[in-house]
Amino acid sequence: MTGISxxxxxxxRTPRGIAAVLARAIRAGELGPGDRLPTxxxxxxxxxxxxxxxxxxxxxxxxxxxVLSRGxxxxxxxxxxxxxxxxxxQQLSGxxxxxxxxxxxxxxxxxxxxxxxxxxxxxxxxxxxxxxxQDEPVLPALREVLTAxxxxxxxxxxxxxxxTDGVARTLEQLVSYGDRVVLESPGFPPFFDLVEALGxxxxxxxxxxxxxxxxxxxxALESRPVAVVLQPRAHNPTGVSMTPARxxxxxxxxxxxxxxGLELPWVLEDDHSGxxxxxxxxxLGAFVPERVxxxxxxxxSHGPDLRIAALGGPALLVDRIVARRMLGPGWTSRMLQTxxxxxxxxxxxxxxxxxARRQYFGRQQALVTALGDLGVPVAxxxxxxxxxxxxxxxxxxLHLAAVGIRVAGGSAFLAADAEMDGDHVRVTSGLVTPDxxxxxxxxxxxxxxxxxxxxxx
Length: 457
Ligand SMILES: Cc1ncc(COP(=O)(O)O)c(C=O)c1O
What we know:
Helices cover about 40% and strands about 15% of the residues. The chain is of the alpha/beta class. The protein has 3 domains: about 5-85, Arc Repressor Mutant, subunit A (Orthogonal Bundle); about 100-110 and about 350-445, Aspartate Aminotransferase, domain 1 (Alpha-Beta Complex); about 120-345, Type I PLP-dependent aspartate aminotransferase-like (Major domain) (Aspartate Aminotransferase, domain 2, 3-Layer(aba) Sandwich). The strands form 4 sheets. Strands 4-12-11-10-9-5-6 form a 7-stranded mixed β-sheet, sandwiched between helices. It has a 4-stranded mixed β-sheet with strand order 3-14-15-13. A two-stranded antiparallel ribbon has the order 1-2. β9, α10 and β10 form a beta-alpha-beta unit.
């Protein structure tokens, strides 16, 4: 018996009816945060329905954010239901904050390393103007700064509300139901949900230490995708930055496609960590500018809540994105654009961002060195994350939580049917200062998969 009161005499034994009973039990407190749901088999037995019906009900509950699956361990009531998050984002926000000392699960920058906004805010208050709805959506002075630092000659550059917004708006223009979209796996979890929400089909590609693997891209292109989304630098979660040689090789793979008379997919480059990346700017736009949309976010370097990124590429596509946006929000507030322009052109904030880049690099090196001393070899990642191979994802999360450290489980970063390269966790290592590195490394070494024999303990 499952002990769920609403199951007694239940008439609607469809997935919807079963999910509704569970949802009511959760809201009424009959099942509390962190409680495990009865097993599919138990409920199926209780109600005399097929396990597939119960599975479908559980799936519906997961989509609402009320519960989350922890693989073989079962399905659990979420600690704090957050229905505004996409399924993978919900999967990422792990168990409660009880006893938490160090939250390294979120992939966000260190607030202490963001440039203070005070001076820019003061100046914007003096400069904010009145604009007509028909005016050019990008401040000319900001466009000038962006164009001067763009990694290739983009025909058109505009400003959007973050890199994720830019990827979403571009894919909305490109993807129709059933179209294929190439995504990196592991990769940024919301992109998998986004492609699914657009009715597209994800085609995963694998990476190595230099970026997306050319053979993997070549194979993916056989499925005739409409778009390829990749992260040129500080790849989340692996910390890989594409080398210039790899960018050229990948462009070669695309060009071979063209020589076969096939249309090239669009390439969307999500340079989400921009100015805090330790690697040089890199883009396929240097080779196939007519098919590349490059995005540069200012979230990691200047602040995620600024919600601002620049998007550049062929006018044909950029103008369509701008025109479609004119029918909704219109443009990114010029006040925000003025703040960004200020932060990109004042010596002080430019120095602060450069210092943040150095700090992140130093933190990554300190943690990697400490891990190496404990017999756990990992390459120094670029950006603010570290992708750690672990023996078992769930055990690693529990073990680290027991010492007050929260990291993100790796499975949310994988395409549904991608080849598994063992379990991982993503550690937002950019938040670990060098004085904490030995302690955090010791905890991580306790769950790491690869340990050199005879070293550390
Ligand atoms: C790969 C990737 N893209 C985009 C973002 C978010 O960028 P934005 O805040 O500009 O939307 C992140 C943030 O972690 C990210 O890791």
